[in-house]
Design goal:
This protein has three helices and three strands; from the N terminus they run H-E-H-E-H-E. It is of the alpha/beta class. Helix 1 packs across helix 2.
Length: about 100
């Protein structure tokens, strides 16, 4: 994949995702607490690495927010998200297609 295409399809949505994580955490955290957010996503090994790196950077630069990223293969993703929603434990943020 050409870098420009990668930038359009992965980096730009990732920037938006990080912004939403910050908004969610600001609402969820009190002054002394660390907000815990769960991110579920699917993607290629390359995308997985990019997302995990972005989440690690986000966690480092936002000490009052901790995001746990959980990768699920695409073939099982819809079933996993459906099961989590049915159980009342959906992720805070998720890739949806």
């Amino acid at each position: 994949m050409h870098f420009c295409a990668f930038q359009s399809y992965v980096i730009k949505p990732l920037i938006g995702l990080v912004g939403w994580l910050a908004v969610l955490a600001a609402v969820a955290a009190s002054a002394d607490d660390v907000a815990q957010l769960r991110l579920n996503f699917w993607g290629s090994p390359f995308e997985k690495g990019a997302i995990e790196k972005a989440v690690e950077s986000f966690n480092t630069s936002h000490p009052k927010i901790h995001v746990t990223a959980q990768h699920t293969p695409y073939s099982a993703y819809a079933e996993k998200i459906s099961a989590e929603v049915a159980a009342g434990t959906p992720p805070d943020v998720a890739y949806l297609d």
